[in-house]
Amino acid sequence: MPCFFYVLFSKSKDRFYVGHTCEALQERLRKHNSNHRGFTGSTADWTIVYSEEFSEKASAHSRERQVKSWKSRAKIEQLIHS
């Protein structure tokens, strides 16, 4: 089963969200856009702006940690536009 590293963007929050999943990306997006507790639950306009596919969960999680360690919106935007 493929796993994914992904970046979401919310226009209303003007923020990115970085995550990983082994679910189908559209199903994971649906969950992010549902009314729930947590960072993504307060708005329902998240869109997938970038993703990478991996053959195992550990690799997708490692990629998520790598991008989060950048702590840089500019670097995330550069990744998306590359």
Give short descriptive properties of this protein:
alpha+beta; GIY-YIG endonuclease; three-stranded antiparallel β-sheet
Topology:
Blueprint: E1 3-10, E2 15-21, H1 25-32, E3 46-54, H2 57-70, H3 73-81
Antiparallel strand pairs: 1-2, 1-3
Structure, explained:
The chain has 82 residues and is α+β, with helices and mostly antiparallel strands. The protein has a single domain (3-81), classed as GIY-YIG endonuclease (3-Layer(aba) Sandwich). The chain is 38% helix and 29% strand. The protein is built from 3 helices and 3 strands; from the N terminus they run ββαβαα. It has helices spanning 25-32, 57-70, 73-81; strands spanning 3-10, 15-21, 46-54. It has a 3-stranded antiparallel β-sheet with strand order 2-1-3, with helices on both faces.
The SS-based structural class is alpha+beta
The overall number of domains is 1
Amount of helix: 25-40%
How many beta strands in the DSSP annotation?
Answer: 3
